[in-house]
Structure prediction request, 1113 residues.
Amino acid sequence: MSISREEVAKVALLARLQLSDDELDTMTEQLSRIVGYVEQLSEPDTDQVEPMAHAMDIANVFAPDEVRPSLDRAEALASAPHHDGQCYRVPAVLGEA
Amino acid sequence: MSAISLTATQQLERLESGQLASVELTQAYLDRIKEVDGQVGAFLRVDAEAALATAAKIDEQRASGKPLGRLAGLPVSVKDVLCMHGEMTTCGSKILENFRSPYDATAIARLKAADAVLIGRTNMDEFAMGGSTENSAFHCTHNPWNLDCSPGGSSGGAAACVAASMAPLSVGTDTGGSIRQPAAFCGVTGMKPTYGRVSRYGLVAFASSLDQVGPLARTAADAALLLEVLAGHDPNDSTSADVPVPRYAETIAKPLQGLRIGLAGEHFSEGLSAETESALREAVRVFESLGGKVHDISLPHSKYGIATYYIIAPSEASSNLARYDGVHYGYRTDEQQLIAELSAERKQLTEADDPHTLDRLDTTLVRMYRKTRSEGFGPEVKRRIMLGTYALSAGYYDAYYLKALKVRRLIHNDFVEAFKQVDVILGPTSPVPAFKLGEKLQDPLSMYLVDLYTVSANLAGIPGISIPCGQSPEGLPIGLQLQAPAFEEERLLRASHMFQQATDWHQKVPEIS
Amino acid sequence: MSNPYQIIIGLEVHVQLATESKLFCRCATTFGAEPNTQTCPLCIGMPGTLPVMNRRAFELSLRTAVALNCDIPRFTKWDRKQYHYPDLPKGYQISQFDLPMSSGGYLEIRDPQGQFETKRVGIIRAHLEEDAGKSTHDEKTGKADSRIDLNRTGTPLLEIVSEPDLRSPEEAKVYLTELKLLLTYLGVSDCNMQEGSLRVDANVNLHIDTPEGTIATPIVEVKNMNSFRAVERALAYDAKRQYDEWQQTGQKLGDVPKQTRGWDDEAGVSRPQRSKEESSDYRYLPDPDLLPVTVTENEVEDVRASLGELPAALRERLITDFGLSPYNAGVLVNQGRELIDYYLTVAKVSGDAKTACNWVTQDVLRVLRKRDYTILQFVEKTGIDADWLAALIENVRNKKLTKDQAQQAFDAMTGHVVVSVVQPLGLKDSVEVVIEKLGLKQVDETELLALCQELLDKNPKIVSDLRGGKHQAVGALIGQAKQRNANVDPGRVREICLNLIQQ
Prediction:
């Protein structure tokens, strides 16, 4: 199966990646090849098979509702590319004025 | 004889008996790193000062008779994918170049509590994605046996640093073979424990349902020592198993009587190189001479391993890596440049009178995300994010992701059946010995296929170990893989130890020139 | 109904669960803390962190789901809902997609004004998820960026989705009121809308009768409604707006994608919300870091047994067993668990449910409203606990006090009426002590008879007026009687005087 360039461009937006025209070409070709290989998954009959999302068969793991100290704010913000000492700062979430 | 040519187990005995000081041992490794790592490139960072300070403190404590941890004074290197408080953790990626962790990974905390001397952080494929360590954003690592060859990956730095005697013990991670394959390529012992055996807390996630932390060392006995420290239940990881941890290093010398060894036809089919096959056949004879009984088994769905893995792992990865967006930590694109770029595009579209495209132009925020991620991630990471995003997107979920989860169950069930007849499964770790650097870079799929024999253990959650069992005519190491049922690491270690008592492949060391 | 259309409303309610710590980490959930002071590596989404589920949050969700008559599946799991936003640091929200922890329940609502029949509003599902942080954008400063506070990130939310069963803005408000009441009875949330503990989104469209049959208009999602009153107004507004739009465009359900509008309460209008996003594709996947939860039938039964009496059952009991009017039963129950507990104690100790109801619904509630007290504050500030009020009622029943005197005692304790007394009242004073201090003594019947006879003898003019049928003239006699003895019961004085004249 091949994937179209438009589809790859759409996926790039969903994934928040920006691909140049060249990268888009390469990506389209490589993804098509990989997806083509993966097509073999349609071979085995899995109608009665439970999906396996975890590699272990346990459930019900909880922690008690007990507050533990939070990070010091300076430490929380220390690795942020842009902050004002109180909050993280990012380009306007509302988009262009 | 230099201390660094001893095994970790021997070094520990000497440290404990006072014949060897940790400062002396640590300095010997630091000297060795200085001597050869310029050529090998196993390390991303070495903190000589901190390592020597820790070593000195441990020596002092030992002298004053204070109780010490299990690894007291032994140098250990750690893959740059485990968070360490106050330290950088880059995952071999530009996007985390400036990230300093405000907490310790559980594996790190356990090493610290065991009084290990953490000497440095090893190189890796970016976010552990790759099988050659060429995908590191910083530099590639060379195979100590042949510097033109890849050390394997993604824990290539870890395997190379043990092979080149730059550390006696090294901590790696394995999502689809990332400990076992480089261990095979570099001629060392490497184990992926059972999923849930070692806490993933603080391990920067690649594919959460597959990732495991594990030991690399020269011998199975050394790996046992390190695993004993790493393993155990952790309430900070919901997927950590609450199963008692045996004293691996103490039980390792007990031979396994009448070991039932399974050979799967699927492991000896096309794609397996002749030199690997003959090394494996010879290894089987060694086990038989030690009382092992060979049984033919079948793992009929193992051929779907790569396809299953390359849907599940990228899907989880696309989700796990969504957080790297330049908002809360890590790399962010230059904002001035970003704004200039967008306004130029806007101007161009306005002049071209293209309201449709103009309307769909990224907002500043969306473009900030896209540029940050495109500049911060390398090509392999982008490829897997794209693949995973595609597989999870509307309309494809059932055909790819859900189908892969079901085939995963079939692969798991194959092992359940097989282990009704045998104690361990013996097969190749990799179809080929180390390949040349650059050889597979342009062909991602051929690189993925190298994982053929290792991904199934991750998908099924079972433990696997790779130990050296031969050499190619070119003098490159060949590894064999043993797999066992979940939580039977002890069996793998004891079987490997039996083999290493009867062979000397694990004692061979490369001459670096 | 005069409208040429039927309004179809479904509500999505997000309730913040009353836990101490967040859903997947142990940071505090306290409201109003300084920005970014309640965060840790996990809720900042730092690499390597792993979620561990808060047991209490799951228990509270289960309680709610059982109380909403939902089916509780034996197996439930957690999924990642993926989208990029700066207040969502992991790039995904942990939520529940295809196997929620509950589904298929209902909430019964009744209208105290009797404008609509008692009805069951279907609950499609209730599921547990984590909250996002807050982004603020100060347009006034002209700065081109937004500020992100992650304190709220990871707070446990229960999302309760109703069927589109509501047929008017009023019904929607009653549903929300009843839901909030239930949640506060269960103790699962404080439901404080101002602090965002309860948030409502509405899906609304119209069914319009036309000569060609009934047609449905496109569904609109209305957001940003910050009070139940705002919900009512917004729905009424949007119904009318949709009708106008339909008349202009003729657009039917399916013609256009679902629109999202934000309600501006000050302006009284809803406005379309910008969504420049690519069509939402959330790429759900089971969260590999979190294990499923299994619930047994026994566990569900244990939860059911522990719920206590819920509002609907309580109202029913007050009407059938206590003989209260539906209206009064509603007033009492709707005040919440603490007040109903107070009432039930007064009724039980005094043995007079109806009189207890009168005191609580009239006198106690009057003070609560005037002083903006909760019932617990009322007890603390006035000393009138349930036993005290019950004792007061008993004193009236035993004719130790008149209703009037009891009222005086109550008012004096609540400070409603300033009384000058020799000894100041204390919060711990029993009814007897208060009677003593206020000098409230029921007058002896013989004494009262003598007093009335004396007053009649002294006021021949009034007597002749009374005999002439001017009954209001008795007021002057009551006034004189009260001057002579403040404790006389005015009703008794009136009764005795009229009796004496007729003899």
Notes: The longest strand of chain A covers residues 88-91. The two ends of chain A are 43 Å apart (CA to CA). Chain A touches chain B through 53 residues (CB under 8 Å).
